[in-house]
C-alpha cells in the first residue's frame, strides 16, 4: 500500500472525505501559495488513498468492504485538521479491569509476527510499556487484506489501534501488560524507514546475554556507543535508557523539592561571563559582541553574589561548560550542575549537614519512586543498590590519606587524589564502614579553587569537602572567602587575572555574610547511583571533546 506522502500518478475524481459527525474543523489562515501547495498535497494524498483502496482488492478482484478499518492516515488528518474528541488510552493503563472494553491506542510498532495468512500479532510500545495486539481474520471484522496491511508495517512506525481488551489464558512473555487487544481498526500515522540504524532489540541487550549466546556459538549484534549516540533519538527508546532519564528527572525534582522545603530560592545565573569561574585551562572562550568572554564553568561567582544580594539560601539547576581535554568515562564538556550556596552561622559543617540530609532523602526517594526504572536499568546493566547510611560518614582528608597509606598506596599528603586512589579509598571505606556514600573534608588548600576558605588552625588545609559515591566524586563544596582583599590575593596566587573578576570581588565590599556551598554533577549522580560505566550513558545528548552533534 502506497504511503499517502508519496506522489502517485493515478488520477482521482474522489471528493475530499467529509468530516465525520461531531468533528470540529479548526481553521488556519494560509497564504495563496501555501494553500495551493496544500491542495496539491491533498490531491496526491487522495490519489494515494485511491491506490490503497485498489490494492485492498481481494483475490477475486472484489474491493475489500472492510477497507475503511485499516490504512495509512491521510496527510490532512496529520495536519491538525480536526478535533474529534476521541480518547486515547496509554498502554500503561491497559489492565484486566478493562476486559471487554474498546480502547484506542497510539503507540510504536515494536514487533510484528504473522501466523499463516489469517493471524498477526503486533507488539505495541509506549513510554516503556508494551502490549500484545492480535489481528485475526473474522467475517465482517477483519479481512485477510487487513492482516497483509499489518504485516507491511515497518518496526518503529506509529499506529492507531482500536481494539477490544481481552485476557489470555496463558502468561504473556513478550509484553509488559498482561492483557491482549483484539484489533478492530489499524491505521498508520507515520511509517518508520524500513531499515533502522539501530535495532531496539539489539540496543536493549545486556552484555551477559551477548556473552551467553556467544558461549552457545551464536553471535548477537552489540551496538557500540558511537552508533548509539549518533542516533540517540532511537537509542533512548530502550527500556534502560527510558529508565535512566526518568531517574535523572527524579534526581532534579528531589533536589529542588528538598531545597525549597528548606527555604532555598531557585535562581538563574548567566552562562556568558567575563572571566572564568573556576580558573584553569578548561574554559570555552568566545567573543561577546567584540568583548572577550567565557562560558561559565559553574555558577560559582554569581551564586555567591546572590548571597551578598541577601537571598540567604539559593540553588540552581543549569548547564555548565568545561573545555575538557581529556577523554574519560566521567568528564563531559557540558553537563548539568546542581548548585547550592547558603549563609552559614559559624562552620562549614552546616553546608555538609545539608548535603547529608539532601542526599539521604534523594536516594530514599529514587529507591521508592523509581523502582520500575531502576529494574529496567538493572536488566540491561546489572548493579547492586547503593549502600548508604542514615547519617553520612565524614572523614578528614588526612584520615583518608592515612587509610590509603596503611593499604600500601603511595600518596602525596598535600596533593589531590587521582581517580585510582579515590576508587581505592572508596573500597577501603566500604570495607571498614559499610557505606558507598561518604564525605571527605579538610582538603589541602593547594588543590582547591581560589575562593576556598583556608582552615583557621592550619592554612595548608581548607574548609572544603568532596563527596563520593562508589569511590567517585559527585560533589565539591566549601566555605568561601568573603573578605575581598584576601580573595583578590588568593586569585592572584592561583594565576587568575583579577581584573576579569573585579565585579565579583567588589560584591564582598558592602557587608558579606559567612557563606559556603557546593556543586553536584547531575550526570555523575545518576551514573554512580546506577553503577554505570560511562557518563555518556546518563547525558541525553552528550557533549565531549569529540562530540557536538546531534
Ligand atoms: P567542581 O569543579 O568540582 O566544583 O564541579 C562540581 C561537580 O561537577 C561535576 N563535574 C563534572 N561532571 C561532568 N563532566 C565534567 N567535566 C565535570 N566536572 C565536574 C562533578 C563535580 O563534583 N564551583 C564548584 C562547586 C562548589 O564549590 O560549589 C565546582 O564547580 O560531580
Keywords:
3 domains; BirA Bifunctional Protein, domain 2; binds aspartyl-adenosine-5'-monophosphate; about 550 residues; 19 strands; 5-stranded mixed beta barrel; 8-stranded mixed sheet; OB fold (Dihydrolipoamide Acetyltransferase, E2P); alpha+beta
Topology:
Layout: E1 24-25, H1 32-55, E2 70-72, E3 82-83, E4 102-115, E5 119-126, E6 129-136, H2 144-151, E7 158-166, E8 180-190, H3 200-203, H4 207-215, H5 225-230, H6 232-235, H7 239-261, E9 265-266, E10 272-273, E11 285-288, E12 291-295, H8 300-308, E13 313-321, E14 334-343, H9 349-369, H10 371-380, E15 393-396, H11 397-406, H12 419-433, E16 437-441, E17 464-469, E18 472-479, H13 484-493, H14 502-506, E19 515-521, H15 522-529
Parallel strand pairs: 2-8, 6-8, 9-13, 15-16
Antiparallel strand pairs: 1-3, 4-5, 4-7, 5-6, 7-8, 10-12, 11-12, 13-14, 14-19, 16-17, 17-18, 18-19
Helix pairs in contact: 7-9, 7-10, 7-15, 11-12
The structure holds aspartyl-adenosine-5'-monophosphate.
